[in-house]
């Protein structure tokens, strides 16, 4: 199972966190993520849907801000550098819009790509708020009462697509486990000039080389029911993805001995396993990142109880056989006396 992580889920979660003064159903701006391509000098026209779900009319204001990657979780960091010549300054937004309660409106915005725009990735967010655009001290964007849409623009030309696998390991660093789940950690660095979206599988085989399970990495089910890659990695940034091999969902970790026995039975695995990572990325999905690791699963609580039960059963069987033999011998002697 893939845990998820700029993915569609991350975009929704981060931008939803910017709302603050609203709750999640107060105002809807869709789609939450645009991934588009263009050539230098090209003009793009596209639109957004704005839905006022509050119980009163209001006036809303648009603004655009560039963003970069922050940390390894896929979170965007919004910057408000005045005069910064990049995607935010290429976007022409509509003026303030007035929406009645329950009103849905389609608004258009234009992206005018300069003739001398650098090939590769350019990133901005379109925000909608109840107050005119403003910058806080230090150039950071004032984030109160805002929702937004991320725009990932890829400008054609001499684009470099290059990713490097920094780490393929286990989340807690262990190599011996008592039970499932087994949590895998994948860290990828983008050395290119455009965002990449590595996605694939971790194939797990047992000690006999038999395929046990296949775990998805950076793949999620979309509203239409189809599975697609979700998490982008921006240029000059690192992103981590976590995926898990598990048999059942567990709300709490077991604490007592017998709880651990039950948990190991429900999340059973035994022996040495090999996990092979296979990720694809690139415009043609023709670039690969691969790695292999091994680990052990030894459910000793369950094995100990099973061993004790087996010994008791064998002891009972031996005792029963001996008692039966003595009864047969005794019966035979009494018959011939």
UniProtKB/TrEMBL annotation:
<keyword id="KW-0812">Transmembrane</keyword>
<protein>
    <recommendedName>
        <fullName>DUF916 domain-containing protein</fullName>
    </recommendedName>
</protein>
<feature type="transmembrane region" description="Helical">
    <location>
        <begin position="298"/>
        <end position="321"/>
    </location>
</feature>
<keyword id="KW-1133">Transmembrane helix</keyword>
<keyword id="KW-0472">Membrane</keyword>
């Amino acid at each position: 199972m893939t845990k998820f992580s700029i993915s569609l889920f991350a975009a929704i979660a981060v931008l939803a966190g910017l709302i603050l003064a609203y709750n999640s159903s107060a105002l809807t701006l869709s789609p939450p993520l645009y991934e588009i391509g263009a050539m230098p000098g090209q003009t793009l026209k596209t639109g957004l849907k704005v839905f006022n779900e509050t119980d009163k009319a209001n006036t809303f204001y648009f603004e655009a801000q560039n963003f970069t990657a922050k940390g390894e979780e896929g979170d965007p960091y919004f910057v408000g550098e005045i005069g910064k010549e990049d995607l935010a300054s290429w976007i022409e937004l509509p003026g303030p819009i007035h929406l009645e309660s329950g009103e849905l409106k389609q608004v258009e915005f234009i992206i005018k790509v300069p003739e001398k725009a650098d090939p590769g990735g350019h990133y901005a967010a379109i925000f909608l708020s109840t107050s005119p655009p403003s910058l806080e001290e230090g150039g950071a964007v004032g984030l109160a009462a805002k929702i937004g849409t991320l725009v990932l623009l890829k400008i054609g030309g001499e684009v470099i697509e290059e990713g490097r696998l920094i780490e393929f390991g286990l989340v807690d660093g262990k190599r011996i486990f008592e039970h499932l789940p087994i949590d895998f950690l994948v860290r990828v660095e983008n050395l290119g000039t455009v965002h990449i979206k590595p996605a694939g599988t971790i194939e797990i085989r047992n000690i006999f080389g038999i395929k046990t399970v296949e775990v998805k990495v950076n793949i999620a089910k979309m509203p239409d029911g189809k599975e697609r890659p979700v998490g982008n990695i921006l240029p000059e940034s690192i992103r981590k993805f976590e995926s898990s091999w598990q048999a059942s969902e567990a709300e709490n970790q077991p604490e007592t001995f017998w709880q651990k026995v039950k948990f190991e039975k429900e999340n059973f695995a035994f022996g040495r396993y090999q996990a092979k990572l296979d990720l694809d990325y690139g415009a043609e999905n023709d670039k690969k990142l691969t790695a292999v690791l091994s680990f052990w699963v030894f459910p000793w609580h369950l094995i100990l109880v099973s061993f004790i039960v087996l010994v008791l059963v064998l002891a009972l069987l031996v005792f029963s056989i001996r008692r039966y033999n003595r009864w047969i011998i005794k019966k035979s002697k009494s018959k011939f006396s």
